[in-house]
Model the fold of this input.
Amino acid sequence: MIGGSMAIALKEKGFASEIIGVDASEKNLQQALDRGFIDRALPLEEAVALSDLIILAIPMDALMTVLPQVLNDMKGQVVMEVGSTKEKFLQAVKDHPQRGRLVATHPMAGTEYSGPEAAVSGLFEGKCTVLCNIDQSDEDAVSLVKKVYETLGMQIVYMDAASHDLHAAYVSHISHITSFALALTVLEKEKEEKAIFELAGGGFASTVRLAKSSPDMWVPIFKQNRHNVLDVLYEHIHQLKKFKQLLIDEDYETIYKMIQESNAIRRIIK
Amino acid sequence: MIGGSMAIALKEKGFASEIIGVDASEKNLQQALDRGFIDRALPLEEAVALSDLIILAIPMDALMTVLPQVLNDMKGQVVMEVGSTKEKFLQAVKDHPQRGRLVATHPMAGTEYSGPEAAVSGLFEGKCTVLCNIDQSDEDAVSLVKKVYETLGMQIVYMDAASHDLHAAYVSHISHITSFALALTVLEKEKEEKAIFELAGGGFASTVRLAKSSPDMWVPIFKQNRHNVLDVLYEHIHQLKKFKQLLIDEDYETIYKMIQESNAIRRIIK
Done:
């Protein structure tokens, strides 16, 4: 989805003249060819040899094996990756002789869908992307990647890997866990109350839509960002328990104050 | 917001020839007059005396005092209310001599915004509304209210008050609590990490948007549906603790299975 959306936009805007697709799934490649956002499909090694810029948009566990391989095969081109966590894999490649050719990025865009069918033009427009630890990347590599994101219409933010992973846990990873948990809560209830979803409206859909997200993508993220995700999960459970205790105590005045405080989120989201 | 949106739609579709607005806030009434979705503003008693159909769209605590008053003042017209919980106040008016003139309903539509500024035409179109305990309402009253909802383009579901309150706790009230708690979790972090929201994207916005909801509306709902809300809150915290424990244990295989199970929500929401 991320790779495909980039392919579409970079082609449309004339940034790329040829796009080669690489994927573990033959079906995905065929769809990408059918939708016309890749020009041809090749095995990884051949594709790397022919490319000026290599974009890795794959689950974090795959990245742990594919990235070192690409760095080994590269002859001075640039590779950018777009993963959701940073610290662990950057640690793993930090002494690689071609580390400077790698730019670690995280475009904050996406939906609950995966695969080439979910790819859309304009996905990145107006959103924000993170460039991580750019002091470890060569200047020309950073320039090229900046050009990519400017072409996609994104605003660039710079962060070190540790800050990125902390931030991402708070404003992205936890949202997915609450959605998964909320979906399971109601699906559990459905076992005894068949029609429980009959009244589900927009508010419910909004809070659980992320629960449609793929475990193939998310389990590796939780794995690699385990420490930060646990921190925020502790804090979130603590807040929920506070609500629960206040409800048990029928302390509606304090509940009122908590809701009022949470309303401060209006400042952040439109 | 609900009352105003109904006023707009019922006027547009020619269902109502004159709409009288009643509100505790002069400012709200003035806005409703300015936007033209009420024809005039009157005190409650006078408005009731002049109306064929009285629609009560007010917070649940206000309903507990206003509804008995309206039932006392009415001379055989019809009153419908649109509140988010049902059991408690229906219990309170169950022996009122004009109980038959009341139809208890819950249109499953709304946003995180309140007040006349948030009122929009088409809010109800295609959505679902609940009629509760209609065996306690007169037939002609139910017919009139059905006509209202058909005019608004809503699909009607019938339920007893207890089922309604249970369902609403699972597919609406809990979503609000998780949003309030999630907003507080990240706002807490912001105290030490000023830029924590820098990366907040669509997923975060989606899971916390309900945290913009008014405490004036929601505290009375949690109060009146306390028992059901506590039940679902226990279950939700249990699911989150399960995630937390699995993450502590690094049992990624079971996390994978839980996410896969939660993906079943795809069946429910588009």
Remarks:
- DSSP finds eleven helices and seven strands in chain B.
